[in-house]
Design a protein that fits this description.
Radius of gyration: 27 Å
Number of helices: 5
Strand content: 15-25%
Strand order of the largest sheet: 3-2-1-6-5-4
Order of helices and strands: HHEEEHEHEEH
Shape: elongated
CATH superfamily: GAF domain
Structural class: alpha+beta
Largest sheet: 6 strands, antiparallel
C-alpha cells in the first residue's frame, strides 16, 4: 500500500487563542500525573519511526479514511508521533479532538462534527480542512493513564462498522506496546551506558589505589633505614 496514494490535507498551525470554552475538553483529574507519565516515555518531538507509521497507515486503510494520526496530548498541545494525510506535527490542545478522546476509556466517535455542539465552531471544522468525522481510541499506559489517541478523520460525515472499531482498538493497544518497547530499550541503553561509566570509574579508582600502594612500598624501606640509625 503506497503512502503516496493517500490524499494529504494541509492543516495550518493555529496560533490564535480559542475563546469558545465549549470547544475545549476538560482536563483529566489525574492530569499532573498523566503528564509526568507521558514525559517519561521521552517520545515527544522525536523523529518519525517506521513501526508507528505502519500502524497509523494500517488504521487509515482499515477505516478507509484519508487522515490517521498517533496523537499525544501534551500540556498545551497535541503532538503527532505519526501522521498520514496531514502536513503538520502538532496543534493547540484547545482545538484537539483527541483531548476529548483521552477523557473516556472506549472509542470516541463523532459522526458529523457540524452537528456536535463541542466541535461545530472548531477551526478544523469550519476552516478549509472541513473535518467532519472523527474516531479515536485512547492510548492507555499499563498503569492506566491516557497518553493520547490513535485516531482517524474524514471530510465527510460517516461512522465505523463493528470490525473497524475493533481494529482501531487493537491497533491502539499495539501503539502502546511499541511505546513501552521503545521506553524499555532506551532505559536498557541508559543502564548499559551507566554501567560502562561505573566500570570506567572503578578502573580509574583501582589504578589510583595501585599507584598509592607502589608509593607506599617504595617509601617503606627508606622509613625502616631511617628508624635504624
Amino acid at each position: 500500500m503506497s503512502r503516496k496514494s493517500k490524499r494529504r490535507i494541509a492543516i495550518p498551525a493555529l496560533k490564535t487563542k480559542i475563546r469558545l470554552q465549549h470547544m475545549s475538553a476538560p482536563k483529566p483529574k489525574n492530569e499532573s500525573r498523566r503528564l509526568k507519565v507521558l514525559w517519561q516515555y521521552d517520545v515527544l518531538d522525536t523523529v518519525p519511526e517506521e513501526v508507528f507509521d505502519d500502524l497509523t497507515e494500517l488504521a487509515g486503510h482499515i477505516c478507509k479514511t484519508p487522515i490517521a494520526l498517533i496523537s499525544l496530548v501534551d500540556e498545551d498541545r497535541q503532538w503527532f508521533k505519526s501522521k498520514i494525510g496531514v502536513t503538520i506535527s502538532e496543534t493547540s490542545r484547545d482545538i484537539s479532538f483527541c483531548a476529548h478522546a483521552i477523557m473516556r476509556e472506549g472509542l470516541f466517535i463523532i459522526p458529523d462534527a457540524t452537528k456536535d455542539a463541542r466541535f461545530k465552531n472548531n477551526p478544523l471544522v469550519t476552516g478549509r480542512q472541513r473535518i467532519r468525522f472523527y474516531a479515536g481510541a485512547p492510548l492507555i499506559s499499563p498503569d492506566g493513564y491516557a497518553l493520547g489517541s490513535l485516531c482517524v478523520m474524514d471530510n465527510r460525515p460517516r461512522t465505523l462498522d463493528t470490525d473497524q472499531q475493533e481494529a482501531l482498538r487493537v491497533l491502539a493497544h499495539h501503539v502502546v506496546s511499541q511505546l513501552e518497547l521503545r521506553r524499555h530499550a532506551r532505559e536498557l541503553a541508559d543502564a548499559r551506558k551507566s554501567s560502562h561509566q561505573l566500570r570506567a570509574e572503578l578502573a580509574r579508582a583501582n589504578a589510583e589505589i595501585a599507584r598509592l600502594r607502589r608509593q607506599l612500598e617504595r617509601r617503606a624501606p627508606r622509613a625502616a633505614r631511617s628508624a635504624g640509625r
